[in-house]
Amino acid sequence: MDSFTLNWRIDKQDSGQSIKDYLKQREISKAALTDIKFSGGKIEVNGNEENVRYTLKEGDCLSVRFPSEMPSPGMEAEDIPLAIVYEDPYVLVVNKPAAMSTIPSREHPRGSLANALIGYYRKIDLASTVHIVTRLDRDTSGLVLVAKHRHVHHLMSTLQREGRIKRTYEAFAEGKLFPVEGSIEAPIARKKDSIIEREVNFLEGQYACTHYKVKGTGEFTYAELVLETGRTHQIRVHLSHLGHPLLGDGLYGGNKNQISRQALHCRELRFFHPFLERELCFSAGLPDDMKALLE
């Protein structure tokens, strides 16, 4: 299996820098350089192995090969079909169905997106493990951003903290949400005596903000939501806090008569690609069980 490798041609502006300083500007950390040095990676200039003190010259070809990554021993590869919306050497965008966990858990040790990714990586001979950038709850469907390598995950996590990864959801909530457009700002914390459930907690919670826009109303509300922050169960908790739990969301008071899981779907994923140096946007339409609510 080939390891992840990055290559640069040094221009006049960067001539005279050490490899260490050059790579620091490209967000390759000291820890990553230590990993490269001691765990099977390699730094080469013009095909010759060099250390980070080497002084770069205009026209040099700098190559950094990162160490191979291996899945953790408990992560089984499974041959599960993936709905791949986009793929390049750095990232994947996958349309995850409901009833699939993002990563294995004690309750669901198999059949997760992570298990499927490990199986897929084996098929394409990719020496990596799973790096989920945007996780979804087991019963939430829609787009998930995956980094193919540890360094890419590091870069995407930085973009996420900077608010440069945006997710837009579609949801069906009980009752009529009013006003028809607004923002929900309410801090979220883990509910006492529960390892799963969250709640709005103005004393101990972390800041959380969800923007919403009503797309239609009838016996329930059809809404579009955009996350400003990414707290666990954020949309579910915020809508339940307003008295409008998601249809099917039994954990937060939703009725399961019309749909058997929370009616929440990540429809759009927009992010700045650090290697292509431009913004990408992908979308995935509503799955059948949520489409049926519109009929």
From TrEMBL:
This is Pseudouridine synthase. Keywords: Isomerase, RNA-binding. It is an enzyme of class 5 (isomerase). It comes from Bacillus infantis. One of its GO terms (biological process) is enzyme-directed rRNA pseudouridine synthesis. Residues 90-241 form the Pseudouridine synthase RsuA/RluA-like domain. The keyword Isomerase applies. Pfam families: PseudoU_synth_2. The active site is at D137. Responsible for synthesis of pseudouridine from uracil. CDD domains: PseudoU_synth_RluA_like. It catalyses: a uridine in RNA = a pseudouridine in RNA. Belongs to the pseudouridine synthase RluA family.
